[in-house]
Amino acid sequence: MTAVAIIGGGKLGEALLSGLVAAGRQPSSLRLSESDEKRAKALGEQFGIRTGSVPEVAEGSDVIVIAVKPSDVDAVLRELVVPLRDSAVDQLVVSFAAGVPIAQYEAGLPAGTPVVRLMSNTPIRARQAMTAAAPGRLAREEHLALTAELLEPLGDLVVVDERHLNAVTAVAGSGPAYVYLLAEAMIDAAVSVGLEHRLARQMVRQTVIGAAALLSEEGAVAQDLRSEVTSPGGTTAAALVELERKGLRAAVIDAVHAATARSAELGKPKNPS
């Protein structure tokens, strides 16, 4: 089985471990490096995996997953230089660090190291992630196959050019927050028309889950599903008229454009102070 080293034991690292183990991956194939010793020990015991320093877990691993904050990436790359340089096998580096371009990895790692940059979202914790993979110039088909082996048990995976990752961030990365905001508004509205808060939460939660289930069916189209609910002159039609009149669609489009621009801004090289 492919040996995987995860560098970073924060929420993302823990979600990856949890999802991979739940998907049937053997704990013996997983290693973790986390700078917080207490955190590393707790996760090691929870999942039954080996923990160690970055060079220790990288040695002998087929895939090295970088799951640290963008500001910590350069330090991790420095620690990876020796084990990658001395490795007798081809090792793939994949990274979830937002806004860090592939060129930065390729410049900081030994020549010839294949890199795949990833953008995912928080539903990875529920094995329902939407993840996009952008291959570097040295990443070949077998490296994308390794990436798929690692991530497909955790949700959907698509391959995109790196230039599209800012848009992916705005749609998939930030997207769950848009859904949660809509859910919040629906709960507030339910309470305002007389429903008890506990009941409102239950109804909205299950409505979102049920709608998502229908949308996930083969060939489902959002516009068609909306039309199925909307009878001419009915309650849904009245509600949708108000949402359109208040600019919901335009607000969502503007929000995605703003998130895309902000992602591009965050990914620009910082001027030295």
UniProtKB/TrEMBL annotation:
GO terms for molecular function: pyrroline-5-carboxylate reductase activity. It comes from the Bacteria. Transmembrane segments: none annotated. Its main location: cytoplasm. Residues 162-266 form the Pyrroline-5-carboxylate reductase dimerisation domain. GO terms for cellular component: cytoplasm. Pathway: Amino-acid biosynthesis; L-proline biosynthesis; L-proline from L-glutamate 5-semialdehyde: step 1/1. The keyword Phosphoprotein does not apply. Keywords: Amino-acid biosynthesis, Cytoplasm, NADP, Oxidoreductase, Proline biosynthesis. NADP(+) binds at residues 7-12, 33, 67-70. The keyword Endoplasmic reticulum does not apply. It catalyses: L-proline + NADP(+) = (S)-1-pyrroline-5-carboxylate + NADPH + 2 H(+); L-proline + NAD(+) = (S)-1-pyrroline-5-carboxylate + NADH + 2 H(+). The gene is proC. Pfam families: F420_oxidored, P5CR_dimer. It is found in: Cytoplasm. The lineage of its organism: Bacteria, Bacillati, Actinomycetota, Actinomycetes, Mycobacteriales. Its EC number is 1.5.1.2. Residues 4-99 form the Pyrroline-5-carboxylate reductase catalytic N-terminal domain. InterPro entries: 6-PGluconate_DH-like_C_sf, NAD(P)-bd_dom_sf, P5C_Rdtase_cat_N, P5CR-like_CS, P5CR_dimer, Pyrroline-COOH_reductase. Catalyzes the reduction of 1-pyrroline-5-carboxylate (PCA) to L-proline. Gene3D superfamilies: NAD(P)-binding Rossmann-like Domain, ProC C-terminal domain-like. Belongs to the pyrroline-5-carboxylate reductase family. One of its GO terms (biological process) is L-proline biosynthetic process. This is Pyrroline-5-carboxylate reductase.
